[in-house]
Amino acid sequence: MLGLVLKGCAIGFSIAMPVGPIGILCIRHSLNRGMSYGIVSGMGAAFADAIFGAIAGLGVSAISNLMMTHSLWLQLIGALFLCFLGYTNYRAKPQPVTELAQKSRLFNTFMTTFFLTLTNPLTILSFAGIYAGLGIGLEDQEMLSVVILTLGVFLGSALWWLFLSWGASHLGKKVNLKNSAIFNKISGAVIFGFGVVAFGVVLKNFMPF
Asked: CA distances (Å), 165 to each of 28, 69, 115, 147, 172, in order?
């Protein structure tokens, strides 16, 4: 059981670690709003990773096949959402932390990254590949093993987001509002760029040349 937890932690950490649009959002929240918002942002991605890990571990082919069948539409929605987030982040004006704390909603922050992560069904293939490479096969094991491995995936992913949020929030304490405005534009442009690239990939798959 301990081995499954450690394997799950390693998998969750490695899946979460590559810096993409979710990482940029987490850093931005931590810089502008504080560590709590960065952690909540990361937890949204961690929960989605745990769901994908559970689906891959359980071998729930019906769900995974359904998501892969509609993967282009899911990726299209995710690409458009990334473009929207990039635009809004670029246009966002820094505000004092007290005002942000009053106007922001932790639930919305959580759901944003949760939704973005779920719109990338290819993550299931990543989990399946890693599980196969590590020789993890849960089809003949008890449900408890699946739960423990999934918990490990969540803990590993959450550990990465906790580390990233902690580092960004400490950096944010040294960033004034002027520098924050610059980061808003940089992060917005980067996230919008991710959205454009994702949209291009979807368009290429829809209309292969």
From this structure: 9, 35, 19, 26, 10
* Residue 124, domain member (yes or no): yes
Confirm whether 160 is domain-assigned.
yes
Q: In residues, how long is the chain? A: 209
Chain centroid, CA 6 distance in Å:
21
The domain of 163 spans 2-70+93-174
Whole-model pTM: value is: 0.76
Q: Does 127 fall in a domain?
A: yes
pLDDT digits (tens), the chain, 209 positions? 777 788 889 888 988 887 788 888 888 888 877 888 889 999 999 999 888 888 877 765 556 566 666 677 777 887 888 888 878 877 776 555 554 554 457 888 899 899 888 887 777 777 777 776 666 655 545 677 778 888 999 999 999 999 999 988 887 776 665 566 777 788 788 888 888 887 887 777 766 55
- Number of structural domains in the chain: 1
Residues 6 or more apart whose CB falls under 8 angstroms from that of 45 comprise: 16, 22, 26, 113, 114, 116, 117, 157, 161
Identify whether the C-beta of residue 8 lies closer than 8 Å to the C-beta of residue 157: no
Residue 155 within any structural domain of the chain: yes
